[in-house]
Amino acid sequence: VMRLFNDWCHTCDHPSSADVAYGRFVMHLQQIGVLMGDDITERFFHIFTELAVKHSLVPNQIVATGGVSQKSSQQLKISYFPIDSFSKLVAMVLKYSSAETGPNKCSLLPKILLVAVRIIQRDSEEKKASFNPRPYFRLFISLLYDLISSDLHSDGANFQVLIAFANAFHALQPLRIPSWSFAWLELVSHRTFMPSLLMCDSRKGWPFFQRLILDLFKFMEPYLRNVELGEPMCLMYKGTMRVLLILLHDFPEFLCNYHFSFCDMIPSSCIQMRNVILDAHPQDMRVVDPASPNLKIDLLPEISMAPQIMSDVEGALKSKLMKTEVDEYFKKSEGSLFLSDLKQKLLLPQNETSVAGTRYNVPLINSLVLYVGIQVSLILSCSILSDLLSAILPLTLCMHKCSGFATATNGV
Amino acid sequence: MSGLLNSNLNNSASNLQDSTGRPFTGSFSGQSGSVPGGFHHSGLHNMHGSLNMPNMPGSFSQRNAAMSGLPSSGVQQPGGSMPGRFASNNLPVGMSQIPHGHSGVGSRGLNVGGGPAFSSSLNIGGTIQGLSSNLGAGGSRNSVPGMSVSPSLGNLGPRITGSVGNIVGGSNIGRNISSGGLSVPSIASRMNLSGNVGSGGLNVQGSSRMMNGILQQGSPQMLNMMGSLYPTSGGSLSQNQIQGGNNSLGSMGMLHDASDGAPFDMSDFPQLTGRPSSAGGPQGQYGSLRKQGVGVNTIVQQNQEFSIQNEDFPALPGYKGNTTDYAMELHHKEQLHDNVPVMQAQQYPMSRSVGFNLGSNYPPNRQQHQQGANSVQNAGPPNIGLRPLNSPNQTSSLGSYEQLIQQYQQPQAQNPFRLQQVSSATQSYRDQSLKSIQGGQTPSDPYGLMGLLGVIRMNDVDLSSLALGIDLTTLGLNLNSPDNLYKTFGSPWSNEPAKGEPEFHTPACYSAEQPPPLQPIHFQKFQTPTLFYIFYSMPRDEAQLCAASELYTRGWFYHKEVRVWLTRIPNVEPLVKTPHYERGSYGCFDPNNWETIRKDNFVLHYDQIEKKPAIPSSQNVR
């Protein structure tokens, strides 16, 4: 494999090389039996990735391998030539393998990315503080440029590429590899990845990006809750605000539909971050000022449209076995002990309190409030609503979109 | 008659204490003296901030708890002699104030006392019993000065005597000056007590007068004493902090006075520090008056909670552990027992006093005072009644009650830490004490008004950046642009937008393999017009030489003068042929028309023909 790597570097380094040479090299790899989609392929790319990263960190070895001699003077800088060569190899392999019989790119790219993910995880575990994320960041950037920017691929294949990258980024979330967090946020919010994923047909890519945003919030939640903003976390917070502003300006529907799960993860002290998310509204909707005089809410046409919530509202209720109790309470409210027992069920167990930082189960409270708001529009009973809300509202720590409650009020 | 005799003896005893305390001078006496002075002033504020009668048991119990806590705070026995001195200083204050109230009390007391005789007699009986028990305890200790007494007991005696003498001695001196008969003092004392019970407006005026008098007469002495301890700080911010600390410490002390008396020591220092700054001028005095009023109100409210705590815990274990005197224990229980009937009796006279028209001279002022007094007094009983009624019925009330208990448990955890601060330096002691108080308050109630106040003041830069937010316009994103922002979004870490990249696609011909380089042998395959094209369109190029060489091979030659390519016409002999020139017909290539034309009778000199160019040595044409 070392000889193959040197040959490939020579091929890339040749200024007059063309696709014919690349094609010959790929066919040579196929003749050897490396690109059959089995374990040999994974080991091949594993060693290739390690060699590329190793050579980029130690520029002296490039001279030994016959690289350009002028690069030997740059001792302290990272040489991206091996990384770029490796990403070009991956692009060519995927390009020529799709034209021939054998494993297509949809099954080969996840394997390559999985190999890279495992190498990053192992490298970060071994080196701890001295882990350098820049070579891997360069690798992913080059792959994004080579694979997503090209228009030759069909739309379906392009979506598969995006899904593969989204899954790789989910595996590399900052909660698992904290030293990778800055590179991770830049990759997730890159202009070749984030807009492509959010502008897919029929919003197929939205759940994947929502999962990535939740990974970011999970990583930052302990620090923001305890107001421990060191310099790195301050930079991280500002970067997150920039990403949210981009989403607010260009993709407000994404923030609208997933605001429920986002608000679950945001600590109660981050008032501005929650306001940015709750400020999102569809681009075709006219928003009036609630404080303006002579405002008739019932005359607004938008009040009849229920907001779309793509998050799982009933997930928290089902996990706590409260959904059936709420439904039974709606059907028969006389003689029910639901309200008296509700207070105890909204508290977290003692061992979870120290982890969450609060005694209240915030996701459960949010889920209960929103579920009641949705269901109460179907039940015309004001007394049940007032009794239930009077027991819940003092404990509600988060605010939801006004249109949700406006719909409930309109129904009542 | 026996009560009067006892009061005389106690008064003389306090005088003796005063004489023995004078030799102590310097910082030691000042330091030890500031603590008891604070006690007296806080006690006076408690008494005159609201009704005298219901506060007397509370103030006594506070003093008992404070005395029991003093040994742990490190005050030595010689310091105990100072309260007598302060007691003597307070006597003129009481004497000067009581004559002012005497005339008013006399006139109103007659009107009020004539109606509810039963209730007034009940109040008098309870009060006299308490006073007699206090006097008895003090007398028993003073009657045996020669015996060895424990430090705690020694400290208890003088304080009780001083506080009692302050009340009884004042009235005696007043009566002696104003009247000479023995029967008159008893009537006057009865009228005084009933007047305090019946009239709410009097208390409001009396409290303001007492505070004003204390400030005027006490501040010079305090200034002299405090000059050696604290620097006089004129900043309003420090005053606010000191007042805040005083209120919080006072509330904690009242809530947990049985277990630990140290909070009283803490709360008195900030209060004393605030007085020297008030002596800066009349405006300063008025400001200090307002602040004192706020403090008094807070103390009054906390006092009500304190009484609730007493009802919930009749026998306090901390009190029993401090002393084994059975008489003191009985005394404490008697006070608790008297607390309930006194409060019940308070409600009955208040309702009657509202109905009275005490005269048409000052109707608007009197009505305002009475309404204020009624609202203040009525606020207590509803609070007491609501909690027991709510707790057994609703779960949410129990939850909120548990939260309150958790909030109160926070100060308990800090008491041991605060005790250690007593022995440290005064200034660092004050600063650390205030800081620990502020720090301890934040996690207890971050969502209340105090927590939000911390956020609004931006004390914590990180918390304000999260809650109030950062300036979004400084993040480098133009939110008002109609175009999409993601195209120019460079990085989450950069403040400048990236330049938009053009979306293009490289044609396939650029990535295709390039054709092989030209070689001189390739020129043999070109047609003659192609060779002429290469010759004329590629000047100074090696290809031009190759083309020329190939043309010579094919029979063409270049004429220098005419600058044209010439060739012989086949099967035609020249007309004239000499060693130097020829004359005949030739083919000429016209570059303008790009064709070969025939020229006849053309004289061709051999020396004007260009020689055949040499082919470059390199195999590749560059």
TrEMBL record, chain A:
One Gene Ontology cellular component annotation? CCR4-NOT core complex
This one is known as Os03g0102366 protein
- What does the record list as GO biological process? negative regulation of translation
Q: Which Pfam families match?
A: Not1
Residue limits of the CCR4-Not complex component Not1 C-terminal domain?
153-376
Provide the leader sequence positions.
none
UniProtKB/TrEMBL annotation, chain B:
Q: Which InterPro entries match?
A: CCR4-NOT_su2/3/5_C_sf, Not2/3/5, NOT2/3/5_C
Query: What are the residue boundaries of the NOT2/NOT3/NOT5 C-terminal domain, all occurrences included?
Result: 486-609
One GO cellular component term of this record is:
CCR4-NOT core complex
Fetch the Pfam families from UniProt. NOT2_3_5_C
Which UniProt keyword terms apply here?
Transcription, Transcription regulation
Report the family membership.
Answer: Belongs to the CNOT2/3/5 family.
Q: Where is this region: Disordered?
A: 1-80, 354-397
User: Is Transcription regulation included in the keywords of this UniProt record?
Assistant: yes
Q: Where is the composition biased (Low complexity)?
A: 1-16
Q: What is this protein called?
A: Os02g0782200 protein
Tell me the domain of life: Eukaryota
Where is composition skewed (Polar residues) in this entry? 17-34, 58-79, 358-380
Per the record, the GO terms for biological process are: nuclear-transcribed mRNA poly(A) tail shortening; regulation of DNA-templated transcription
**Transcription found in the keyword field:** yes
The record ties this protein, via Gene3D superfamilies, to:
CCR4-NOT complex subunit 2/3/5, C-terminal domain
